[in-house]
Specification:
binds 4'-deoxy-4'-aminopyridoxal-5'-phosphate, alpha/beta, Aspartate Aminotransferase, domain 1, arginine biosynthesis, aminotransferase, seven-stranded mixed β-sheet, transferase, Aminotrans_3, 18% strand, PyrdxlP-dep_Trfase_major, Aspartate Aminotransferase, domain 2
């Protein structure tokens, strides 16, 4: 019996013993094709790159740990230089932490502290969006819109107003252009800010490309720019959560760059350390840094493992590999191939309602009926069956239930490592088709 309290404690999980590139092997010798970077869009440069092992070993040989209240390190400094060099204009400093949820907490607290220091203590509310996930900690859950993950903890969370996501497949009106829809969706933020009272709102948080909860839905053209204007109008800080879509995955170093998005605060994790070490980061604008420097002079929160030298060394090595091997460009090229393959295989599929995404971050939304977009009955658990069928066949994909806000948009996320070959991409599409066929047969039986 296992003494590990897994997410599914009654299940026996295969033990993973080896991984190279996109292939993972368990203790029974079964191999898996990893179409989702370790299971959650993390292992962006693939498994087992010896350059990262070398960088980690070198850092361990130098110094494993030093508290960030006493020291900085070459790894932390060089990594911050690298991130800021490629970041949207205006971002100038990096706060480190150990993962996505911690990074979101840090971002929320940074936004709040900024207004406290500016003498606007009334500004404390955070507006976010429905059908979103920003992490498992209490603050991150509070601003999230993933009902099943949030509901059990309701009495422990703070209230955060949630507006509709930008989700053209479901929400674009008949005859409405995509551009007009983008403006309408963004204007929901303005309405919400006015309803709350602009003097009470500190921040708005959104994913430029929604990951797990919607299945790779990018903001419609014009949405992020309109959001920026609205935030400026009401003195609200704009926070982009790129924990899943950032790090080069969309074919851009940061996902919002494709849309000309310019946040005040940008949150990354997952692909930052590529799974070689747990690490997250918050990029903050110079204006925010100036506020803190000219005010109290210190961040009012932090974690013991902030700027952990080994985590920073691993993430720095990952960034170097991405640059040296041209992996952002590879994500764009392989992403285009993946998308073309998905369109060809499933563009007319009776149960695939929508194919969307950017780069190597592509999602399919499943429906019972293509014409009406009617979802599958949630009790059929289409997404869970698909995951199980794919996994039984040695393919790792990331399906999510869509029983959120009354819409059952069962979907699957594909997020393979940027080192995927053309043959890997073809194989992912072929094997996904087999898993989908089997799942549809089961449901129809
Ligand atoms: N934000 C987004 C968009 C995410 O997808 C996730 C994780 N799935 C998180 C935040 C939380 O990150 P972590 O699990 O590393 O705490």
């Amino acid at each position: 019996m296992s003494h590990v309290f897994h997410r599914t404690p009654a299940r026996t999980l295969p033990r993973i013993v080896a991984a190279q590139g996109l292939r993972m092997t368990d203790a029974d010798g079964r191999t898996y094709l990893d179409a989702v970077s370790g299971g959650a869009a993390v292992s962006s440069i693939g498994h087992g790159d010896p350059r990262i092992t070398d960088a980690i070993t070198a850092q361990l040989g130098q110094v494993a740990y030093a508290h960030n209240g006493f020291f900085t390190s070459d790894a932390a400094e060089e990594l911050a230089d690298t991130l800021i060099a490629g970041a949207p204009e205006g971002l100038s400093r990096v706060i480190y932490c150990s993962g996505g949820s911690e990074a979101i907490e840090s971002a929320l607290k940074l936004a709040r502290q900024t207004f406290v220091e500016r003498g606007q203590p009334g500004k404390g509310k955070v507006i976010a969006r429905r059908q979103s996930y920003h992490g498992a900690t209490m603050g991150a859950l509070s601003i999230g819109g993933n009902v099943p993950r949030k509901a059990p903890y309701a009495p422990m969370l703070f209230d955060a107003p949630l507006i509709a996501p930008c989700y053209p497949y479901r929400d674009q009106a008949e005859g409405e252009t995509l551009e007009a829809y983008a403006i309408r969706a963004a204007d929901a933020l303005e309405e919400q800010i006015l309803a709350e009272g602009p003097e009470t709102v500190a921040a708005f948080v959104a994913e430029p490309v929604v990951g797990a909860t919607l299945g790779c839905v990018p903001a419609a053209p014009g949405y992020l720019k309109r959001i920026r204007e609205i935030c400026d109008r009401y003195d609200v800080l704009l926070v982009f959560d790129e924990v899943m879509c950032g790090g080069g995955r969309t074919g851009f170093a940061f996902a919002c760059l494709e849309d000309g998005g310019s946040p005040d605060i940008l949150v990354i994790a997952k692909g930052l350390g590529g799974g070689y070490q747990p690490i997250g980061a918050v990029l903050a604008s110079q204006a925010i840094v100036d506020t803190i420097v000219d005010g109290s002079g210190s961040l009012k929160q932090g974690f013991t493992y902030m700027a952990h030298p080994v985590a920073c060394a691993a993430a720095l090595a990952v960034q170097k590999v991405i640059a040296e091997d041209g992996l952002v460009e590879a994500a764009a090229a392989r992403g285009a191939q993946l998308r073309a393959g998905l369109d060809a295989a499933f563009g007319q599929h009776p149960h695939v309602g929508n194919i969307r995404g950017r780069g190597l971050f592509q999602g399919l939304e499943f429906v019972a009926d293509r014409e009406t977009k009617a979802p599958f009955d949630p009790s059929l658990a289409f997404n869970a069956r698909l995951k199980a069928n794919a996994f039984a066949d040695g393919l790792m994909v990331y399906p999510m239930p869509g029983t959120i806000d009354g819409i059952n948009g069962d979907h699957v996320v594909l997020a393979p490592a940027f080192v995927a070959t053309a043959a890997d991409i073809d194989e992912i599409v072929e094997r996904l088709a087999v898993a989908i066929d089997r799942t549809v047969q089961e449901i129809n039986a």
